[in-house]
Specification:
Layout: H1 23-41, H2 48-54, H3 64-79, H4 82-98
Helix pairs in contact: 1-3
């Protein structure tokens, strides 16, 4: 299945009534949001709305559907080869720092 957008069309996290995440999943949710913010800083502006404007509002307490939505953001990034380009960027930065 190909993911075309970082967030499902028509998804409204503010009206989500799924179960609250347990402590472990809440920590995982906040970790993923933090990673997405760094991805935005590195130049991937296509996930800005899904990450900053919507999902980061639900850090305390996230619900299970919110966790599923942030995992979708990572899947979207992965399908577009984002992680390879980030690692390449870090490799270039490390190379320049060593010289």
């Amino acid at each position: 299945m190909s993911i075309k957008t970082p967030m499902s069309e028509g998804y409204h996290p503010e009206i989500d009534d799924s179960a609250l995440c347990n402590d472990e999943d809440s920590a995982r949710y906040r970790y993923i949001i933090g990673c997405c913010v760094w991805i935005i800083v590195l130049g991937r502006l296509d996930i800005t709305y899904a990450t900053s404007a919507i999902m980061s509002r639900f850090n305390m307490p996230p619900r299970e559907a919110h966790l599923k939505a942030v995992k979708r953001i990572l899947s979207y990034c992965s399908e577009r080869g984002l992680f390879e380009s980030i690692f390449f960027w870090f490799e270039i930065q490390f190379t320049f720092a060593q010289s």
